[in-house]
Design brief:
This protein is of the alpha/beta class and 348 residues long. The protein contains 13 helices and twelve strands. The chain folds into three domains: 44 residues, 434 Repressor (Amino-terminal Domain); 131 residues, Rossmann fold (3-Layer(aba) Sandwich), CATH 3.40.50; 130 residues, Rossmann fold, CATH 3.40.50.2300.
């Protein structure tokens, strides 16, 4: 069966005995066209199955009303919440999204960047893969004046616009909380220290130990990929440690929950034997037993802030080049998984 011929404004014009210019303005809801005429034009367009030629319009305007988004993974509550924040702002502003993910691969990230560049996105929001070094693969955007906002995983020593949390402060607070609970042998489970977020959390951890005169033990720092398997592996390594650790700061809630489950399956009590702190405030942190102390990482806020800054720049309201770094607030949420020094009941 041959596909039906695409309906054009000329077909609508012929049906209504109007000029193509009148139909074009009517489809755009231009107030220079009589309200009743606009209604007839739009009803005829719907009846005939007319589709607006966004591509042709974009070529004329040199604008696609499309924002590209590059994320490092999709199976993450944090990334999902960031995307929700981005989508809320871009939809309200009349922009479409093209979302690509790098699967933690620099090569795929670079290919995604090139693809989005050729799709003529008006702007880009990106979070870097584990092994990404430098930002050369984004140079084409810079040369064309296409704005980019980086979020979460960024290159810190660049003039690019970044939306982040204070990962150092979060790492310090999480570790200090465990120390305040009496922990002295604290395991850190984190990811590639070449990536800013994990490097800064690690620095917060080491500085909190130093400030409390607790020795840093390299054997207690486990570098993982923060997957489900990572949680199992971390638990099995913790079980073999002598002396047994009394605290664990795991920089991902899902990995922390899996680690806790595996430790409990091996007879370890939480927080009595080992207190645990996670990171992100994912939904699983409230489901696991005991509920997980964690760092609230407001993904929706981060997405909204990144998108709003980009769109304000595109609309000429502000210039993102005048704002290098935006720090989003984050807080430690204390729950039962880390509370070893709980106040005693007043019962006799």
């Amino acid at each position: 069966m041959k596909p039906k011929k695409e309906v054009t404004i000329y077909d609508i014009a012929q049906k209504l005995a109007l000029s193509s210019a009148t139909v074009s303005r009517g489809l755009q809801d231009n107030p220079s066209i009589n309200k009743n005429t606009r209604k007839k034009i739009q009803e005829a367009a719907k009846e005939l199955g007319y589709r607006h030629n966004t591509f042709a319009s974009s070529l004329r305007k040199q604008k696609t009303n499309t924002i590209g988004v590059i994320v490092h993974e999709l199976n993450s509550n944090f990334i999902t919440s960031v995307l929700a924040g981005i989508e809320k702002v871009t939809t309200e502003a009349g922009y479409d999204l093209i979302i690509a993910h790098s699967s933690e691969s620099f090569e795929k990230e670079a290919a995604n960047a090139l693809n989005l560049f050729h799709k003529r996105v008006d702007g880009l929001i990106a979070s870097l893969a584990f092994d990404t070094k430098g930002l050369d693969h984004y140079d084409a955007f810079e040369e064309k004046g296409i704005p980019i906002v980086f979020f979460d995983r960024v290159e810190e020593n660049t003039e690019s616009t970044k939306v982040i949390i204070d990962n150092y402060k979060c790492g310090y607070q999480a570790t200090q909380h465990l120390i305040d609970q009496g922990c002295k042998r604290i395991v850190l489970v984190t990811a590639n220290l070449k990536r800013n977020v994990y490097a800064q959390r690690h620095k917060g951890y080491t500085d909190a130990l130093y400030d409390n005169e607790i020795p840093y033990e390299k054997s207690r720092v486990l570098i993982k990929d923060l997957s489900e398997q990572c949680g199992v592996e971390a638990a099995l390594q913790i079980l073999k440690m002598k002396p047994f650790p009394d605290g664990a700061f795991i920089t991902n809630d899902f990995s922390a929950a899996v680690c806790m489950r595996t430790l409990k399956e091996n007879g370890i009590n939480i927080p009595e034997d080992i207190a645990v702190v996670g990171f992100n405030n994912d939904a699983i942190s409230k489901i696991i037993e005991p509920q997980l102390t964690t760092v609230n990482y407001p993904g929706i806020d981060m997405g909204e802030i990144a998108a709003r800054n980009l769109i304000n720049h595109l609309k000429g309201v502000s210039n993102i080049k005048h704002t290098n770094t935006i720090v989003v607030r984050s807080d430690l949420i204390i729950r039962k998984s880390s509370l070893r020094n709980q106040p005693k009941s007043g019962k006799s």
